[in-house]
Specification:
It is built from one helix and five strands. It has one helix at residues 89-92, and strands spanning 16-22, 29-39, 45-55, 59-73, 93-107. Strands 1-2-3-4-5 form a five-stranded antiparallel sheet. Strand 3 (45-55) and strand 4 (59-73) form a beta hairpin. The N and C termini lie far apart (63 Å).
Length: 117
Amino acid sequence: MVTKSNNEKEWEYYPSIMFTWLNNGSTNFKFGFSGGFGYNLDNSISVFTGGSIIYNHNITITAGLAFHNQKELSSKYKEEDVITENLDFDQLHTDFIAINPFISISLRLDRNPFKRE
């Protein structure tokens, strides 16, 4: 019998490489468009896009959307269906691209993050 399982994680961690395009300005705060790629231990790649606020080129806060693979029950099956053959997890599930919010905080550690360059 197909039963619902709650394997969803509240938080997922993706070590990532982020890039930020900055506007030209000489203020303490700069704004930019960011993007990046991440990879977790579940063999899942994620693509990130969002906006960043940078303080003195030292502290960056980025927020936006993450696009990554997740699994869901295949459309061939419904909850409480009775299956007479043995199927593994991959036969019961299909991949789909999920869109979730993300937040990132970065620190430049080669100098005092509160001092202006």
